[in-house]
Amino acid sequence: RHKPDGCAAYAEEVGSNSNVKCPMCLTLPALTLLQKISNHLELIKANPERDANNPEKVARDLEIAEMVLGEDAETLGGTTVDSAFLNLSSTEHCGKMRALEKLLGMWRATQGDKVLI
After folding, report:
1. Could you give the CA distance from residue 38 to residue 40 in angstroms, rounded to a whole number?
2. d(CA 41, CA 68)
3. Cα(40)–Cα(13) distance, rounded to whole angstroms?
């Protein structure tokens, strides 16, 4: 269970003077990262253009992208965001969109109902 005084209590408990984060404080960022990975791999890549004034964030994002993509990074377009990402978000390049397009087609053909996404 998470302690009200947070990471300081955890650091004291494990005997560390450094800036240690308790496991509960890491849960939300880890879940957010997993959500980005499941939505589209392009979302975990670093965006140096958007974050030009924050080099620490770019470095952290690059590190995360390298860790997630591993040896397949170059095959998947590198560790930085493709400038044509919106064009790549078509059904041609995204498995989720491909599946959704097929589902919508089936629903329209069998039921003729409208679908709210």
Report:
1. 6
2. 9
3. 38
Torsion on CA atoms 101, 68, 59, 56, rounded to nearest 10: 80
pLDDT digits (tens, 9 = 90+) for 49-105: 888 899 999 999 999 999 988 998 888 888 888 777 655 566 666 677 778 888 888
Phi, psi of 80 (to 5 degrees): -115, 155
Phi–psi pair at 112, nearest 5 degrees: 70, 10
Please tell me the pTM assigned to this model.
0.56
Cα 7 to Cα 24: distance, rounded to the nearest angstrom: 9
Dihedral of alpha carbons 11, 15, 16, 20, sign: negative
Tokens of 17: 């003077």
Q: Which residue in the block uniquely carries the two structure tokens 């995360």?
A: 64
**Residue 80 neighbours by CB under 8 Å, 6+ apart:** 45, 46, 47, 48, 62, 65
User: How many other C-beta atoms lie within 10 A of the C-beta of residue 79?
Assistant: 19
With tokens 């957010």, the residue in question is: 32
